[in-house]
Amino acid sequence: xxxxxxxxxxxxxxxxxxxxxxxxxxxxxxxxxxxxxxxxxxxxxxxxxxxxxxxxxxxxxxxxxxxxxxxxxxxxxxxxxxxxxxxxxxxxxxxxxxxxxxxxxxxxxxxxxxxxxxxxxxxxxxxxxxxx
Length: 132
Prior knowledge:
- InterPro entries: SQR/QFR_C/D, Succ_DH_cyt_bsu_CS, Succ_DH_cytb556, SuccDH_FuR_B_TM-su.
- By secondary structure, the chain is mostly helical.
- It has 5 helices and no strands.
- The radius of gyration is 22 Å and the shape is elongated.
């Protein structure tokens, strides 16, 4: 026996506007955003490699663009997205191994991902400028 009225009275699934944002939810959204940003960064990396293969004048042109303030900001953002996405992947790997599901562990992993991604990005850029 089927009752068509039951279907019409069912509650709708909650949307993001209803949920109170929590850190793990924000981290999930950031993980998706950084994954999408890596596509753009990969195009930048491919352009730089193509410029290196094209010859010195074109390579200098691309390096001039990447060396500008806007270019460095974009490259810094790409570096952060890469590191953040990598650490988010490690967080997911820990969950895949069956660990880190407790509330304290989830919060700690989320905070460690944020702090770690910012710290590692700054360290990488400091080392890059020191070597340069």
